[in-house]
């Protein structure tokens, strides 16, 4: 008969623990695999409907496209269209969660699944098309340069060795960084910071989407848009996470529907025409 000593008991206990551990390790992959399979069975649209809200990234400080009014409510051209998208997707325009975003983090918000759709004056570029999926465009845009009326910038040559103000991650940032390294760029995260810097004289001019600087100059008569159309004409479109084909296809169909119903033109009449008046025809701005 084998004598059971304290040492033997320890060995038996250790063997039991190891056996249980191996069993647990063998079960974990199966459990994880089941969870993964379960997750992939839920489509992006089904998940949005399950959540009961669609998360849409918009600007908070870029009137007339996306901004907060005096009551803290989201307003603007992008916001108007986004509300209709929420209504078509969930049956109620109030079932939208507006997520405030900056130009520099629009891509990251989609990658990190912080938003379902971006409606933040998002210009389509080849670089961005590599990392997000753009839906059909709804607006045309180019770059513009705004400066003080008493020292107007009317030609890029005037900016050589001067400080130009831009927002990080914008097409203006990309354009001047690549095409005009002789111009010093001062970059900011928020539009309010950039325009405050212009008012404070931290730069001789500010470059941004021409639609934005034209609107801003109307509200600030001491400034003028000396360069109204710079670079190639670009398109603005909403975007979804890269590879989210189901949501992309649905969004494209909905944008077609909204255009046919005149919703995009109505959004223009409500938010953009009061700013631009009859000086810029709607057909020159809206993609229909």
Automatic annotation (TrEMBL):
Keyword Transport recorded: yes
Keywords: Signal, Transport
Classification via SUPFAM superfamilies: Periplasmic binding protein-like II (SSF53850)
Solute-binding protein family 3/N-terminal domain segment(s): 53-275
Name used for this protein in its record: Solute-binding protein family 3/N-terminal domain-containing protein
PROSITE patterns: SBP_BACTERIAL_3 (PS01039)
Pfam families found in the cross-reference section: SBP_bac_3
Family in the record: Belongs to the bacterial solute-binding protein 3 family.
GO biological process: amino acid transport
Any Gene Ontology CC annotation: outer membrane-bounded periplasmic space
């Amino acid at each position: 008969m084998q004598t059971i000593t304290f040492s033997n008991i320890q060995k038996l206990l250790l063997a039991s623990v190891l056996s249980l551990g191996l069993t647990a390790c063998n079960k974990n992959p199966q459990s994880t695999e089941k969870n993964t399979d379960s997750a992939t069975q839920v489509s992006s649209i089904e998940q949005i409907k399950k959540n009961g809200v669609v998360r849409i990234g918009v600007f908070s400080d870029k009137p007339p496209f996306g901004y907060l009014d005096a009551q803290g409510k989201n307003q603007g051209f992008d916001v108007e269209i986004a509300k209709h998208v929420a209504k078509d997707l969930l049956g109620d325009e109030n079932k939208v969660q507006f997520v405030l975003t900056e130009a520099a983090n629009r891509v990251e918000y989609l990658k990190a699944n912080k938003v379902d759709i971006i409606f933040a004056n998002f210009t389509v570029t080849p670089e961005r098309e590599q990392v997000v999926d753009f839906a059909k465009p709804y607006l045309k845009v180019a770059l513009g340069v705004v400066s003080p009326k008493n020292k107007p910038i009317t030609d890029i040559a005037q900016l050589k060795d001067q400080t130009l103000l831009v927002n990080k991650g914008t097409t203006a940032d990309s354009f001047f960084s690549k095409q005009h390294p002789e111009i010093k760029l001062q970059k900011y995260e928020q539009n309010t910071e950039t325009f405050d810097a212009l008012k404070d004289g931290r730069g001789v001019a500010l470059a941004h989407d021409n639609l934005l600087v034209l609107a801003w100059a109307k509200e600030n008569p001491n400034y003028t848009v000396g360069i109204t159309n710079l670079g190639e004409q670009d398109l603005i479109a909403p975007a979804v996470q890269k590879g989210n084909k189901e949501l992309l296809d649905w969004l494209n169909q909905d944008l077609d529907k909204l255009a046919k119903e005149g919703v995009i033109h109505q959004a223009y009449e409500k938010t953009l025409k009061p700013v631009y008046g009859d000086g810029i025809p709607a057909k020159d701005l809206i993609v229909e």
